[in-house]
Amino acid sequence: MTRYSERLWPAPWLLIASALVIPASMLVLAPISMPAGIVTAILLYGGCVALFLLGAPTIEVDDRMLRAGRARVSLDLLGKPQVFTGEEAALERGQRLDARAWLLIRGSIDPVVTVPLHDPADPTPYWLISTRRPRELAAAIEGSRRPAAARESL
Question: Which pTM does this prediction carry?
């Protein structure tokens, strides 16, 4: 059962800013053929938008796993998540960032959640995840963790 699910869609300003590919491609192809420039501009912009939308990662928490993008980890291996917003989130993404941490961050999403990883076989100290609903993500991780024996009896 999924307790939390979020898709990290790109910010609207990113889709609008990528529209600059339209005049750029038209400017390049206008001396050759204006219709070719218009068609190329539409195709390039459509491709940019499609890449942004198809590449948007998903964060999911269920009874056993945390999935963030392509990575996944058992909830048994996680510590207590911490929520950071505003200036604290900027510090976590910058000055306080451990180079060994696993990251799923998006520049257009301010809040982050750090989730300590307690796996002796993995040198990664924690996951740093951007989310628009940090408190809900932290609560889902905390609420989904149960002793292994309790889960196996389900």
Answer: 0.81
